[in-house]
Amino acid sequence: MSEAHSVLFDPNESYYQGQDNLQYYQGEYSQDSSAVSPTYGYQTTNSQEYDTYAYPPPAGAPQVQVSFLAAFGSGGLPGEPPLLEELDINFDHVKTKTFAVLNPLKPVDSHMMDDVDLVGPLIFCLLLGLALLFTGRIQFGYIYGVAMVGCVSIYCILNLMSRDGIDFYRTASVLGYCLLPIVFLAVISSLLRLRDSSEQISTILSPFIVGWATFAAAKIFVSVLVMHDQRLLVAYPVALFYTCFSLITIF
Predict the structure, then answer these.
(1) Beta-carbon contacts of residue 5 (< 8 Å; ≥ 6 apart)
(2) Where does the source fall among the domains of life (predicted)?
(3) Which of 246, 245, 239, 237 has the alpha carbon at shortest distance from 152?
(4) What is the 8-class DSSP label of residue 112?
(5) Are 117 and 88 in contact (CB under 8 A)?
């Protein structure tokens, strides 16, 4: 072992004879945990260790806002679209289409349904089910079942009648938004049942509610598909669709 040690570290080598070639860094050691750490060119304390070692952001770098609300807005990175926009949820469009149903006498823009939106229809179907739930009637399965069968049927009828045709999502969007008057009927019917009042009021209101929903939906379909000469043919299957919902609501 001594020979191996002498071969590896030969004391006769001139490099080890002098101390000019050896450089040592001076440091201090202390038992106190809050003392200054060993010095290697600069000093850091335990409380400032991460701040000292962190690299500063480059000039002009975007400042990222980290918060819960920033995930639903545009507060993340500059130019990044909000989360709701990435999910194709635009509440301005929902409001515009809802007001078009509430005021069916207002002229309808033919490009209003270019943006396919199913958020409003899902909300109205949920509200309809909740309104019926207050009277102890769980009708969610009937609501979504009738809605699916009706949307498929009207989708097929409209594509047979129109020249350009319409896709299924737009058909479901129009029928779902025009379900809002049926939601009003369900709320009125539920309030009358809770107060043990006569249900004849709901029965009397149901033809007007069905006519309101039918007129609004047929007007949108006619405007989008340019079928002004076939308004009554479009309104007939739509009226049957909303009549089913009115029967679920009243009985």
Answers:
(1) none
(2) Eukaryota
(3) 237
(4) G
(5) yes
- Determine the longest span between alpha carbons in the chain, in angstroms: 117
Tokens of 171: 């058909």
Segment 7-27, tens digit of pLDDT: 555 555 555 555 555 555 555
Q: Please list, residue by residue across 112-134, b when 16 or more beta carbons sit within 10 angstroms of its beta carbon and e when fewer do.
A: ebeeebebbbebbbebbbebbee
Using DSSP's 3-state secondary structure scheme, residue 227 falls into: coil
pLDDT exceeds 80 at position 131: yes
Per-residue three-class SS string for 131-176: HHHCCCCCCHHHHHHHHHHHHHHHHHHHHHHCCCCCCHHHHHHHHH
Better-predicted residue by pLDDT, 247 or 4: 247
The DSSP output letter for 9 is S
Give the CA angle between residues 60, 62, 65 to the nearest 5°: 150
| Chain Cα centroid distance, residue 71 | 11
Torsion angles phi and psi, residue 98, rounded to 5: -65, -40
